[in-house]
Write a structure and sequence with these properties.
InterPro entries: DUF6111 (IPR046093). Keywords: Membrane, Transmembrane, Transmembrane helix. The chain crosses the membrane at residues 35-58. It is rod-shaped and about 70 Å long. The strands form two sheets. A two-stranded antiparallel ribbon has the order 1-4. It has one domain (2-74). The longest helix has 25 residues, at 37-61. The chain is mainly alpha-helical. The chain has helices at 2-25, 37-61; strands at residues 70-71, 74-76, 79-81, 84-85.
Length: 86
């Protein structure tokens, strides 16, 4: 659940940053006055890149060992031994 919320937050981050820039940087009073199609597309591209980079980072750092011999799960003395890499 936390990972899903983090991905949603990363996707919304560029839109929130641009809205804050419009409000405090350009001093635009109307909420929709500074938004253009170009700005929306730019924010969407940055958002997708942020989500893709975070997914790659989570996958790359969350892996276990990738060298060795895989031992599949098995039953030993009535107990399930999970699969592992030796």
């Amino acid at each position: 659940m936390a990972r899903i919320l983090a991905e949603i937050a990363l996707f919304l981050l560029p839109f929130a940053a641009f809205a804050l820039y419009l409000r405090y940087g350009r001093k635009v009073d109307s909420f929709l006055a500074g938004w253009s199609l170009r700005a929306l597309i730019g924010c969407a591209v940055v958002a997708v890149l942020l989500v893709a980079a975070s997914l790659y980072f989570i996958e790359a750092t969350g892996r276990g060992p990738t060298t060795g011999r895989y031992v599949p799960p098995s039953w030993q003395d009535g107990v399930l031994v999970p699969g592992h890499i030796e």
